[in-house]
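Late entry, evening session. Most of the bench is empty. Finally got around to the prediction I had been postponing all week. Sequence below, unchanged from the version circulated by S.P.
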Amino acid sequence: MIGLTAVGKSTAGWHALRTLWQEGRPAAFVDAQQLGFVHPRPSDAFVRAQISILLHGYQRAGATVALLVSRDPVLARPRFGEGAGALIRLAADPDALARRVESRARGSSALPAGDELRAAPAPTRRAVLPRALREAEDLARACPDLPVVDSSRQAAEATAAALLEHLRSSVLALRSLPPGPGTVRLVLNRDRILETAIAQGLDRFSMAGVSRELGVTDMALYRYVGSREELYSLAAARAHATFQFRLEGTDWRAHLVEVAEQTWQLAARHPGIERYLLDGPYHPETLRVFDASIAGFRALAPQFSADQAYVLLSRVVSFTLAAADNALSRRWQPDPGEPSALFRWTVEALVDGMVGRLDDLPTDPSARGLGPESAISPSRS
């Protein structure tokens, strides 16, 4: 299946896959875009080779049909088994595309790995729609004879059903293979559980929702996590550890502002993570990130003691998490995914005010009641 950016091909393809699993058909799924998360981007020939390797592995594992989604029709034409398969184009009108771009930017949809739109700033979002419309024109010219499924006015489940209707009429494996005795499920492990919880949202996932998405019973999850709260902590730690902080400033004040801005973006990408970062208890990987943050700041500002560096950094982080949570939950600013100029000014004023009073910093650790005390601490730096 091919389709332009934000048309919903990954979501529709995933729903189609789950339908095939529920019918008991050994089916596989590949998203070609997620094979290219490397810089510089590999050549199309390399990606095609990786797709072929994956499909061959799925076939050897028993899959009789594979669903492949891609923006590029060239990448979407590998052979699987005895046939070349069927190619379908997914389309949507400009209004539907605009809604989906905004939905993904707000984090209202599932989180595909490497999603360029999650918490994207307004200029990025504005650039995506024209690009997607150009892609639509290019695909229509390149593949004029392909069957088209329009996803504009229907949910992903309905789009998936339409896709499968086309496939059943053209793919031998789907016409002739009788349903198996039960649903085909992938191996369950803690990593898949954590990624599913993150994708559903740290602030809204449930054990029932995660188990339903994974195609298992609720009780199956408890072999890997003891409770919903434990799953939340583990998933939040995973989301925090995999967020790419890019701190490039060489001035310590600019460094603190960068920490604040990127902490805001982390909160925008993963609503609900602020409770974990403020309250703990903390996963060892989270402690490692905190320790590295303290060390990085002190390398830029050796004039501050461990206590002083801790207070400056932890207060900036704590203030940012609270401010981001307020803005993201109330939606009171036009682009809550991006910190405002007033926020940056407030961070700078907060830092300047604290620096001016470091000489009378309380020495009693219990006086520092705000922030992740057990994680960022002078004794750990």
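Two things to note before I forget:
The radius of gyration is 24 Å.
The chain has three domains: 2-176, 190-240, 243-380.
Will write this up properly tomorrow.
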